[in-house]
Specification:
CATH architecture of the largest domain: 3-Layer(aba) Sandwich
Distance between the termini: 21 Å
EC number: 2.4.99.17
Number of domains: 2
InterPro entries: QueA (IPR003699)
Low-confidence stretches: none
Function: Transfers and isomerizes the ribose moiety from AdoMet to the 7-aminomethyl group of 7-deazaguanine (preQ1-tRNA) to give epoxyqueuosine (oQ-tRNA).
Largest sheet: 9 strands, mixed
Number of helices: 9
CATH class of the largest domain: Alpha Beta
Number of strands: 17
Keywords: Cytoplasm, Glycosyltransferase, Queuosine biosynthesis, S-adenosyl-L-methionine, Transferase
Subunit structure: Monomer.
Order of helices and strands: EEHEEEEEEEEHHHEHEEHEHEEHHE
Structural class: alpha/beta
Strand content: 25-35%
Mean pLDDT: 95
Length: about 350
């Protein structure tokens, strides 16, 4: 399909720079079959059925944004995928000033050597020393806010909490699974009381999620791989939900992509551990999920393509036009949508 088909105009003032307070006070646009409903995240228990199960990503965002120098040149690095115990693949700002073998000084006694430049301009960074890389990042890194927020304000102490979900446990993501940012303990308790279950998996979200699609046709776009895991107990539990007639509702496109990577043609979800680069566009037949809760996505993005695959491109274009007219807040810190095909 033409990438232009997934374009739309978004007024800049619709981009949220801070999350709603409290988190579950965000608005939620519900597309349930042919119905379009303006609701709030707090209404979620009433929008689902007893026996349904929400699937969360328990990845934890690490402070993966680094600023350093190579000689006189300023170098910015955004880590996006672990490649070894001390090696991370990183997108580099001012990459033209960096060569294989160069050492970058990120301050706070944190150094890394660049090598293996990729076709996308990324480098492998090997961190010096014996301390765990996570400790080094805590010392020298900061939260990797999406560029559409970071370009409008600096990262601050609030983001260290705001940009983590309540489920964050497994460190390794460089972007938050933002749909889950809307959840609070009080909301989970109400879901439990309504006999709506929860389950967790792990997908370490990479910075590639923010990259624009530069190809003219979706067939020519290459996704960046991300590492994920679904253990046997979780796979068995999710299959049992469906066998009983419940629906599996992914919370976030990251949860959805991992479930679809693990599901066979028969719809059975199997244990999974490894990389996935699944790219979902209209025409895809969903196998493992029955619905999706997600935020509002960028035009021409792989994520808008994914929701268009789930609900139909014309349906999503109309829904986004409605959301813009009605003042919904977009992107990572914005409002939610509940998509039930």
């Amino acid at each position: 399909m033409r990438v232009d088909d997934f374009d739309f105009e978004l007024p800049p003032e619709r981009i949220a720079l801070r999350p709603a307070t409290p988190r579950d006070a965000a608005r939620m646009l519900v597309l349930d079959g042919d119905a379009t409903l303006d609701r709030g995240v707090a209404d979620l228990p009433d929008m689902l059925r007893a026996g349904d199960c929400l699937i969360f990503n328990d990845t934890r965002v690490i402070p993966a944004q680094l600023e350093g120098v190579r000689g006189e040149a300023k170098i910015g690095a955004t880590l996006h995928k672990r490649e070894g115990p001390r090696r991370w693949r990183a997108f580099i700002r001012n990459a033209k000033r960096l060569r294989d073998g160069d050492t970058i000084d990120f301050g706070q006694k944190v150094y890394a050597t660049a090598s293996d430049r990729g076709a996308d301009g990324s480098f492998a960074l090997d961190f010096a020393g014996n301390e765990p890389v996570e400790w080094l990042l805590q010392r020298a890194g900061h939260m990797p806010l999406p560029p559409y927020i970071a370009s409008k304000r600096p990262t601050d102490e609030r983001d260290a909490d705001d940009y983590q979900t309540m489920f964050a446990r497994e460190a390794g993501a460089v972007a938050a699974p933002t749909a889950a940012l809307h959840f609070t303990q009080a909301l989970i308790e109400r879901l439990n009381a309504a006999d709506i279950g929860t389950a967790t998996l792990t997908l370490h979200v990479g910075a590639g999620t923010f990259l624009p699609v530069k190809a003219d046709d979706t067939d020519d776009h290459v996704m960046h791989a991300e590492w994920g895991r679904i253990d046997t107990a979780t796979a068995d539990r999710l299959n049992a939900v469906r066998k009983r007639g419940g629906r599996l509702i992914a919370v976030g496109t990251t949860s959805l992509r991992l479930i679809e990577s693990a599901a066979g043609e028969d719809g059975v979800i199997r244990p999974f551990e490894g990389d996935t680069a699944i790219f979902i566009t209209p025409g895809y037949r969903f196998r493992g999920i029955d619905g999706l809760m997600t935020n509002f996505h960028l035009p021409r993005s792989t994520l808008f393509m994914l929701v268009s695959a789930l609900m139909g491109l014309e349906r999503m274009q109309g829904a986004y036009a409605h959301a813009i007219r009605e003042g919904y807040r977009f992107y990572s810190y914005g409002d939610a949508s509940l998509l039930l095909p």
